[in-house]
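Q: What would this chain look like folded?
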Amino acid sequence: MFEAIDKSGRRINSQLIQAERLKQMELFCPYCLNRLRVRQGRKRIHFVHLARCTGESSAHLGWKSHLVRYFGRVGYLAELEKVHGQRRFDIWLPERRLGIEIQRSKMTREEWERRYRLDRQMMFEVRWIGFHPTSGRIIKLDGWMKQALQTNGYLDLIENGNINRYGYAIPFTKHLVICQRLDMSLAQFLTPTPEAFPRKFPLTSWIQMVRKYRMRPFFSSMPNHLLKQPLYEAGMHVLSLPALCFLPLTTLLAFRVHPFELQISIYLALRGTYTENRLTHALMTCLDTCRILYTSDVLQRVVGEWSCLIDIAQRLNQENQLNHHNRFEEDVRLAGAVQLFVEKETGI
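A: My prediction, written as structure tokens:
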């Protein structure tokens, strides 16, 4: 390994400091916090452990022990590092045939999907617990987190010494979502029913996010002929686009694309005239051009939600409740209408 930490927690790279100086330092593994020593390899200087490293951080180890003790107190037998065939679980509850994975290190979406398929084949129930990259309702979805959220409908994240559950994610960048914190109990952890909780629309936060996007310098990750070129040819700017280009579409989490960029591109392609057939065709064309994979089931769910929110915007327009001369005010009114729709649908 080429990285270590010193007593103060400062990162030390073996390639940036002379060997003699490194040998005088007291160095530790950034994962298990055990002592390291300096070794001169054939080509490069690196660090090696004085004792065997488990590859697990102190936080990971600490939470495994904490959960085993907790389950013991509430009457469940909990086993550490239980192996079943090709799978090894951090914690195993034999009475429920339920495995618990505490994921501290980064893991790819593909690796999570591989383990998920194995679990389904073996008919195991698995609860994944991650670590919140920051705190609060805004979450950066790295690797496995996005796939787990899409598949399960929720994420359990360790945050400030607690395990919090988040659901109803609305993407507002390629990797960031704003979520709703759901109530967590032992019963909910063992048998998750995130759909049982009424959805609450984050009105103020959403308005602020749309405003920030409108005000920032415009750049696009999509091909120029799909977004930037049509935008300029239409003589428009992000500030002059209608509010229906910035809809809170939860289903867009399925695509590896910026949700606002996709909505703007579709608006320009359809010239603001939406029908389900036109929307489906334009969306398929855009996704195919960007080489983004999708299934017919996902496409149907996206078009269904999109069409529903477009209907809300068009209804407001017919009632002359949208101020097209002030796009910020239009954003506020449309967000308020979406909030009323969500609360009505979920019975708040």
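The longest strand covers residues 162-171.
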